[in-house]
Every structure is written in structure tokens, then in C-alpha cells.
Amino acid sequence: MHAGKKYTFFEFIVWTRRDIYRLTILAIIPTVLYHFCKFTFLSISWVPVALLGTAVSFIISFKNNASYSRLWEARQIYGGIINASRAFGVMVRDYLASQDKRTAVQIIFYRHFAWLTALRFQLREPRAWENSNDPRNIEYARLYHVSEKTDNLENILSKYLSADELKYVLTKKNKATQLMALQSSHINKLFVEGYISDLQLQSLQSSITSFYDSQGKAERIKNFPYPRHFSSIATIMLNLFVFLVPYGLLNEFNKLGNGTLIEGYSIWLNVPFAILLTWVFNSLDIVGESSTNPFEGSANDVPITNISRTIEIDMRDMLDESDLPPALTPENSILM
């Protein structure tokens, strides 16, 4: 997540410079052929190009709205995890007040931290449809650090789990699911042993259900991409529009100089204006595409690492621990 005031225009230019090179070539070729080789047949009416541009603007708007909805839903899911975690922590601490806080309560708290860790690692696993391998994003990713791509999951989980639980969890495919199952088993054991009442058991199990619900929603967004047919047709139509724009503007700019001092030279205005027009449409499309996968580890991700750390700090504070982990800070205005 970009935690600064805004992306600068210079950042956008650098981020899209490869597209600008391509758009420049597409604008120069028909202009040169029209002006020097007199290939006037290359000029086409602007009307069909404009109609195509209208269709492209609609489908890109639809794509961007859908991308924003996926991003905002992902943020809401993690917002729910924050609230549910705090409530869960308070209930566990207060229901087990007669217990030594360094035993049962701490075990449950730390297992919850392990669940948050396993979940964020799972959500940051790459998928074929994601954009983390796009040259633009690879280059920009040098400005910040994605801990899930470099840190060792086993080493982190070992700080929160017993040796037996760690060994068990590492054998499972969906580690987050099994960690929450261990929480449920532990809570039920405490009920059987008489440490919590029936109503307290129901409250804690409702929290477990809430965590599973949030995990399932996050996994749905992670594992179900923005529909490929919508994405594909948007790209095809955009590329067709980008290709045709310079041809549709040729005659317009050629007529612009008739009877003026720039007669014969106005045609060259086709290059900058074609680049500007196509760059706007192209940039709108890639901005939407860069937001459609909110857990891929890009600069526009939901900051799940930071949120998990915030939850850990809050819950460890409930245990009156003094050695709290530091809050994460933005790196070059990017917070992960």
C-alpha cells in the first residue's frame, strides 16, 4: 500500500516508460509513411476510432471498478480480522483470568500470531494470473521489501509454537486452517477441564468461526482472479484502439496546417497527441490491472504484514509484555 500523499507524475512516467516507447513507435511509423512516402491511404476517419474509444473507456471503467471492489473487500476482510482478534484476545484473557497468563493464555495468543503468519504467507504465494512478474512491477519492487518472499516460514512459526505443534503444522498443506483447528481443540479441552463455562465456550468458538470466515473470504479473492474473458477482451480492444489512434488523427492534423505558416509541418503534431491520448487509456488499464490482485506483494497490496504486526502488538500488550515487536514503517512510502 502506498502510504504517502500520492504517486508523482515522474513515478508514473518511469513506471510506464516501456509503454511510452511502444506508443511512440506506433505513432511515428504512420506519420513518417504519410508525410514522406505520401501513403495518404493510411489516413482513416476519426469517427470509428472515436466510437471504439468510447467502448474501450466503458470496459476499462468496468475493469477498474471491479479491481477497486476486490481491493476494498480485501481491506475490509483484514479490518474484520483486526476487530475479531482484539475481541478474541480480551475474551481469552478474561475468561482464563484464574490461569497463569504465561501458560494457557499465552499459548492461545501465540498460536493466533502463528495463524496470522501462516495466512499472510499463503496469501502472498504467487499465482499464474498475478502481475508480480510484470517488468514494471519487478522494477518498482526494488523500492520495498516483501517479507513473505524472503523470510523463512518455519523460523517465524518456531517463535510462536511448541516443537510438537510446529512439526505437525509443517506437514499440512493449509497451515492456517490447521492452526485454527488446534485453537479450537485447545479451547474445547479447557472446557472439558472446567476452566471455561458453556457460554464462554460458545463465545470463543464463534470467534474461531469468524476467523475461518475471514480466511475463506481472503482465499476466495486470492484464488479466483478477475474473470479472464473480461480481462482479455479489455486488453484486445485497448491494443486495437491504441494501434488505430495515430491513423485516425493523420488527416485531422494534416488539415490543421492548411493555409497557415505550419502547412506541411502540422502533421508532426500527430506524434505527441497520439502518444498522449493512447498513454492515458493505457495507463488507466494498467492501474486497474495492478489493483486487481490485492495479495500478490505489489505496491498496491493490502498491507497484511503491517496489519498482522499491529494485531500482535495489541495482543501482546494485553499480556503486559514489555518486549513488544516494533511497528512496521513505510519503505519509500510503501507499506506491506
Describe the structure.
This protein is mainly alpha-helical. It has one domain (9-318). Helix content is 68%, strand content 0%. It has helices at residues 9-15, 17-35, 46-95, 101-123, 135-140, 147-150, 153-157, 163-170, 175-192, 198-223, 228-256, 270-289, 304-318. It is elongated, with a radius of gyration of 27 Å. The N and C termini lie close together (6 Å). The mean pLDDT is 91.
- Structural class by sheet pairing and helices: mainly alpha
Overall body shape: elongated
Low-confidence stretches: none
- In the residues, how many domains can be counted? 1
Helix-strand sequence: HHHHHHHHHHHHH
* N- and C-termini, Cα separation: 6 Å
Radius of gyration: 27 Å
Strand content: under 5%
Mean pLDDT, to the nearest integer, reads: 91
Largest sheet, strands/sense/barrel: none
Helix fraction?
A: 55-70%
Q: Give the number of helices.
A: 13
Total number of β-strand segments?
Answer: 0
Outline of the structure:
It is built from 13 helices and no strands.
